[in-house]
């Protein structure tokens, strides 16, 4: 392992931010905290994006590793101990200084500090805590801090970190225990889930405390998140989605992030490099994630053992609707809000607009357009006062064909009568 | 008597104060039944059946209008008219006036006026409000300060709408102990914030008059180089997507951002 002791700040920043880029979370949301006028910074609940990198992802936090020296040998990671790369570490002074100087110039919303495991998890965790302590106490920093909990660090260190940070996260990395064993031999389900549970429990206690004493110190006020790598160990979408659901339910996580696997190492246990990251699959998983968090879907509604993977061609909601055509068409003027949310093409905003507008008068298709409901997908699944927008058929094959021919403004049946080639074998079930 | 019923075109200063002074003065024409238009520029050609009045800005009048909007119509309407009043749209003054007139005129007090999107003026007002709000939200993130001298942070912005004053509360709360200046390069005005003090707005300022402006273009800030390096190395090359980047961060903001100067984070 090459460890360079004397390295300029510029080189350290390049190496350690390059190593941190595969961490997806860059959110600065979840906490509203006004500055008290004595230090520097505040925090806005909606989060603020300060820039966007060349891959289109938002840059809102200074996302760096404290060190890329690592004793773990996770096969998917650039910093695995068996890789021959340049290693370096920040010092707590450098980290806090850099954060403050960036923050003053309004480059960032705060700090996202992660780290490789230097010598032992406890030692690393302590250095992370020291960095944030400097930031909070010496510089009076009141902006956002996201801290990684190092798997295997002792509970009292996690607890100390929780009072300094706004959000904490422990990466689950792989959804199955076997995958974890194969690809991250130094991590285990236990060392990952234990800090997660601890943070959740303590957060619950903290809520009680805050109810009694308004000014009690807050423990991880923006909640915790985690991340899973997609497409490294051959797990199915069903497994991923069920794990995510369990995490939301049992660990009350704020977010689960999905990271399309980028091949940085060659290893016999990893997919061959050169295929590019599975970006579309990642996108579909995020869509499914949204359906579970905001649209009242359950994991087993979207996927099952028999249908283990999401349809890459269609978004998961469309896919669900096509296999549940018995629930459609939905009447816009009378349907329950929960059912409106399940119509493809109608999101939370459209559904609530419909719900508010239909109190005053019944809605027709022009009204829907006027209040901003996009009908491109929805028109196959809804009726207004009993009528559909165009003479469409409620058939899986027909709708699917139209959905896939994207860019077509109207379905073929819109202008004239819709003709369908008769086939003896399909239409009359002969043969 | 005839001219009492002609359209009244009020020309006022292009500031929040100017617009709301015109709203105050326009009210009595409107009560008499004349249609009122508020403009921030002189009408180009001659127009039939209308009289042009020049309205001087008056702080007291504008405060009176804003106070009663806030008290009678609530904070949401107050915010909407303030945002619309700083937009760059030529008909913003008329939109603000007609909206307030249909909310408060004829002895009414319609607190839900913003939901009346069928009214073309309310509709326009809401569009302007959203546009200004979006730009403001962008600038919360995209304002870039440069350290000049030892103690001063200087920033230049070129916003489409006149949002400078709306930025003040956010940055005042965020950097209370810093001396900072935000300079609107398009409108030649600047927001000055002394450490631990209150913000002041000064108009008619050129770049040369800014504090330590001698340093501004030449002496680079070392942290700008670090920031550029960071933006470059945080990009995952395998996921490169400049189209998405441009959608989220349009080109018009990039002129004032160091990470896009000389090569930037492509």
Strand content of chain B: 5-15%
The quaternary structure here is heterodimer
Structural class of chain A: alpha/beta
Largest sheet of chain A: 6 strands, parallel
Task: Provide the spatial order of strands within the biggest beta sheet of chain A.
Answer: 4-6-7-8-9-10
Overall description:
The complex is a heterodimer of chains A (431) and B (266). With 431 residues, chain A is an alpha/beta fold. Chain A folds into two domains: 2-302, Aldolase class I (TIM Barrel); 324-427, no CATH class. Chain A is 37% helix and 10% strand. Chain A has helices spanning 9-18, 92-104, 121-138, 155-164, 177-183, 189-212, 237-250, 279-294, 299-302, 316-323, 337-340, 348-357, 365-370, 375-378, 396-404, 424-427; strands at 2-3, 51-52, 58-59, 61-65, 86-87, 110-114, 144-148, 167-169, 224-230, 255-260, 330-331, 382-383. A six-stranded parallel sheet of chain A has the order 4-6-7-8-9-10. In chain A, strands 1-5 form a two-stranded parallel ribbon. A two-stranded antiparallel ribbon of chain A has the order 2-3. In chain A, α3 runs parallel beside α4 and α7 packs parallel to α8 (279-294). The radius of gyration of chain A is 25 Å and the shape is globular. Chain A starts with a strand and ends with a helix. By secondary structure, chain B is α/β, with parallel strands linked by helices. Chain B has three domains: 2-135, no CATH class; 143-219; 220-266, no CATH class. Chain B is 42% helix and 14% strand. Chain B is built from nine helices and eight strands. In chain B, the strands form two sheets. Chain B has a five-stranded mixed sheet with strand order 4-5-6-7-8, covered by helices on one side. Chain B is elongated. The model of chain B has no long low-confidence stretch (mean pLDDT 88). The chains are: A alpha/beta (431), B alpha/beta (266). Chains A and B meet through α1, β2, β3 and α2 of A and α5, α6, α7 and α8 of B.
């Amino acid at each position: 392992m090459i460890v360079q002791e004397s390295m300029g700040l510029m080189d350290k920043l390049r190496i350690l931010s390059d190593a941190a880029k595969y961490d997806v979370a860059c959110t600065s949301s979840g906490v509203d905290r006004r500055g008290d006028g004595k230090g520097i910074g505040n925090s806005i609940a909606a989060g603020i994006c300060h820039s966007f990198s060349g891959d289109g992802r938002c840059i809102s936090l200074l996302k760096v590793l404290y060190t890329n020296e690592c004793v773990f040998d996770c096969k998917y990671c650039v910093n695995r101990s068996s890789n021959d790369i340049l290693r370096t570490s920040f010092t707590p002074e450098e980290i806090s200084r850099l954060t403050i100087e960036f923050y003053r110039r309004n480059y960032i919303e705060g700090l996202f500090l992660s780290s490789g495991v230097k010598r032992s998890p406890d030692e690393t965790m302590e250095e992370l805590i020291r960095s944030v302590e400097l930031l909070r106490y010496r510089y009076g920093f009141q902006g956002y801090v996201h801290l990684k909990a190092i798997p295997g660090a002792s509970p009292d260190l996690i607890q100390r970190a929780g009072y300094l940070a706004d959000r904490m996260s422990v990466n689950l990395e792989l959804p199955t225990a076997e995958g974890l064993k194969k690809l991250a031999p130094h991590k285990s389900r236990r060392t990952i889930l234990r800090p997660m549970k601890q943070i959740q429990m303590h957060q619950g206690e903290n809520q009680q405390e805050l109810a009694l004493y308004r000014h009690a110190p807050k423990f991880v006020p923006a909640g915790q998140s985690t991340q899973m790598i997609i497409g490294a160990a051959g797990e199915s979408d069903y497994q991923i989605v069920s794990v995510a659901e369990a995490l939301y339910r049992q660990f009350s996580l704020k977010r689960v992030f999905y990271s399309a696997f980028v091949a940085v190492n060659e290893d016999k246990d990893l997919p061959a490099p050169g295929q590019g990251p599975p970006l579309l699959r990642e996108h579909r998983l995020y869509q499914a994630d949204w359906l579970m968090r905001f649209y009242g879907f359950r994991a087993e509604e979207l996927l099952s053992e028999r249908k283990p993977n999401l349809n890459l061609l269609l978004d998961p909601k469309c896919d669900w609707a096509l296999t549940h055509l018995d629930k459609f068409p939905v009447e816009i003027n009378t349907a329950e809000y929960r059912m409106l949310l399940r119509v493809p093409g109608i999101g939370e905003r459209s559904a609530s607009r419909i719900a508010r507008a239909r109190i005053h008068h019944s809605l027709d298709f022009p009204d829907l357009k006027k209040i901003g409901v996009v009908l491109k997908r929805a028109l196959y699944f809804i009726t207004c006062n009993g009528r559909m927008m165009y003479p469409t058929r409620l058939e899986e094959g027909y709708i699917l064909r139209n959905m896939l021919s994207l860019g077509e403004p109207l379905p073929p049946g819109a202008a004239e009568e819709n003709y369908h080639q008769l086939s003896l074998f399909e239409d009359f079930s002969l043969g | 008597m005839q001219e009492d019923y002609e359209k009244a075109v009020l020309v006022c200063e292009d500031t929040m104060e100017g617009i709301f002074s015109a709203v105050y003065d326009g009210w009595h024409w409107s009560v008499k039944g004349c249609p009122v238009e508020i403009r921030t520029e002189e009408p180009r050609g001659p127009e039939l059946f209308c009289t042009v009045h020049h309205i001087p800005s008056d702080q007291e009048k504008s405060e009176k209008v804003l106070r009663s909007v806030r008290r009678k119509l609530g904070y949401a309407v107050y915010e909407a008219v303030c945002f619309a009043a700083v937009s760059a749209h030529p008909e913003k003054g008329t939109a603000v006036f007609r909206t307030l007139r249909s909310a408060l005129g004829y002895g009414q007090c319609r607190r839900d006026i913003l939901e009346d999107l069928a009214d073309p003026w309310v509709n326009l007002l809401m569009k302007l409000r959203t546009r200004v709000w979006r730009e403001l939200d962008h600038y919360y993130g995209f304002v870039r300060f440069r350290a000049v001298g030892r103690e001063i942070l200087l920033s230049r912005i070129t916003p489409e709408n006149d949002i400078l004053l709306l930025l003040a509360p956010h940055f005042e709360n965020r950097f209370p102990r810093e001396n900072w200046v935000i300079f609107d390069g398009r409108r030649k005005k600047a927001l000055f914030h002394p450490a631990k003090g209150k913000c002041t707005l000064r108009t008619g300022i050129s770049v040369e008059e800014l504090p330590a402006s001698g340093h501004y273009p030449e002496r680079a800030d070392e942290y700008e180089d670090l920031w550029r390096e960071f933006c470059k190395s945080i990009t995952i090359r395998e996921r490169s997507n400049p189209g998405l980047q441009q959608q989220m961060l349009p080109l018009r903001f990039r002129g004032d951002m160091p990470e896009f100067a000389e090569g930037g984070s492509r």
